[in-house]
Amino acid sequence: MSDVVLYEVADRVATVTLNRPEARNALSAEVRRLLPEAIRRADADPEVDVVILTGADPAFCAGLDLKELGAGEQDLSDSPAAPGGDPTVARGPLPVIGKPIIGAVNGPAITGGFELALNCDFLVASERARFADTHARVGIQPGWGLTVLLAQAIGIRRAKEMSATGNFVDAQTALAWGLVNHVVPHDELLPFCRRLAADIVSNDAAAVRRILRTYDEGSLVTGAEAWRIEARAAAEWLRSGGARASDIEARRAAVIERGRSQQGG
């Protein structure tokens, strides 16, 4: 794999790093080809339970490579926004996979790079992170889910403000608005994400994946249908033997002890 997208696995966690720091990790045609390959590689690897997506400092991702785009070197016809594209199957630069993706936002995430972050399951931000939707400033339309995912994260009024103004939001504001789950010192970003990943790894992997899939399925429908989706998922889980009494009892003591250790944390 080219070094513009780095891939490493340790402790059942795959870390995928955009590695074009001189271009602020802009999504060149090569990155757009290799990034989905790396995510699918992690999804297919039985030794991986969690993916961390980040960028090489100083930026997370500046969005599409505008130099390539302006020179006609990028073909956007494969976007799910293109005629015939199905955005519930292909969501922008990331394929839909069964394993959780933690976005480790180490610096600015702008326009397409902002959409890339929004397509992660949840986000942890460095204190240096900043977010901006500059689609209108560039004169293009979002097609990777921004108008859906940003409104879900921060509410439609704040989302409209970000898109209409193109103004940057800093990490602490992003935390207050619910855009990111945590803000941590820059040097602690990857260690913190790896600790969260280890917490996920310590759970039943099949249960984690089915629960996250249920969230995703429910997000595409009305509230009433989302309730029905969860009920069907729970019934299917029981029928498949995914909730064996012996397993639950064996894990119960560990769950109680872990809860005690996290009291006040």
Assembly status: single chain
- CATH top level class name of the largest domain: Alpha Beta
- The number of domains is 2
Give the number of helices: 11
- Our measurement of the CA-to-CA distance between the termini, rounded to an integer number of angstroms, reads 41 Å
Strand order of the largest sheet: 1-2-3-6-8-11
Mean pLDDT: 90
Runs with pLDDT <50, length 5+? none
Shape: globular
Rg of Cα set = 19 Å
Residue share in helices? 40-55%
Beta-strand segment tally? 11
Structural class: alpha/beta
How many strands, which pairing sense, and closed or not: the largest β-sheet? Answer: 6 strands, mixed
CATH superfamily of the largest domain: 2-enoyl-CoA Hydratase, Chain A, domain 1
CATH architectural designation of the largest domain: Alpha-Beta Complex
CATH topology group of the largest domain: 2-enoyl-CoA Hydratase, Chain A, domain 1
Give, in order, the helices and strands.
Answer: EEHEHEEEEHEEHHHEHEHHHH
Description:
- The protein has helices at 29-44, 66-70, 112-118, 135-138, 146-154, 156-165, 171-177, 189-201, 205-219, 223-239, 245-261, and strands at 5-10, 13-18, 50-55, 90-91, 94-95, 101-105, 108-110, 122-126, 130-132, 169-170, 182-184.
- It has two domains: 5-201, Alpha-Beta Complex (2-enoyl-CoA Hydratase, Chain A, domain 1), CATH 3.90.226.10; 205-261, no CATH class.
- The protein is globular and about 60 Å long.
- The protein has 265 residues and is of the alpha/beta class.
- The mean pLDDT is 90.
